[in-house]
Amino acid sequence: MNRKKEEKAEARFAAYVAGLSGVLGHADRIGPLRDYCTGLILPGERKSVEPMAAKTAPARTAAQHQSLLHFVGIATWSDEKVLAKVREMVLPAMERQGPIEAWIIDDTGFPKQGKHSVGVQHQYCGQLGKEANCQVAVSLSIANHSASLPVAYRLYLPKEWAADKARRNKAGVPSDIRFKTKPEIALEQIRWACEAGLPLRRRHSAENPGVAARNRTEAERQAAEQYGTSRRTRSDLGQTSGA
Length: 243
Fold this sequence. Notes:
Layout: H1 3-21, H2 30-41, H3 49-56, H4 61-73, H5 79-95, E1 102-111, E2 121-125, E3 130-143, E4 148-155, H6 159-162, H7 165-171, H8 182-196, E5 202-207, H9 212-215, H10 218-227, E6 229-233, H11 234-237, H12 239-242
Parallel strand pairs: 1-5, 5-6
Antiparallel strand pairs: 1-3, 2-3, 3-4
């Protein structure tokens, strides 16, 4: 990348972070947000705050680690407001490449080594194509043939986690979070998207081949009846889900 392109990319990144800063609630969160976003896009497999701190502030790694840890785990900014701001900034650019053609419901697994991350347990992990120790998030994305954008995102809390008060308290799980199946979470996201008036032509459920049939539930059938969703596997979705 030549210097002119680098400067343009840096300016776009700065504008993007500045836009998100407006919904964080406190000015002292702007620096950690910038550093956290920087850490996400830097090279490296591990995206936890410890390696991020070492890369974004090598001269003050310990202090940076505490700053990022507080921002991610304790600061009370709203993920819904952040996602809404992302949508506000990104959707116009997407629609310049073509209309939104699909809503994609997906469950994404994040492999984990330990047992302390919220919601982690031995369960199906799409990244690995098998059951493994992982976290799982349910998301709703809007997509066209150019790109896709998550507009709703929620970490799945397994029943064992939801019922374990001590484990919840230690991990900081809010008391109002209750167990819900993945299709129930997805149905809530679809309802919200309809009420919010998000653009669409059709809705699809992206799921791993072989898992689709046994995971169809009453909640999903309700979604199909009320909102016209159709289930397709990731291989069926092709370019749309991979955009």
